[in-house]
Amino acid sequence: MKQNFLCFFLITVVLVGCAGKNMSENVAVNKGAPVVYVYPLSELNQQAIVGVLPFQVPVNMEQSLELGISALFKDALLGRRAFLVVKQLDQPYGDHRDAVRIGRRNEVDLVLAGRVNYAIDGTELGGARVDVSVRLLDTRTGDTVWYVRQAMDQPMDYPDLGLVNRLLTSLSPNRIRRSAAGPSVPNMLVAIAMDMTDVMGGARYVKR
Question: Is the predicted pLDDT of residue 131 greater than 80, yes or no?
Answer without folding.
Answer: yes
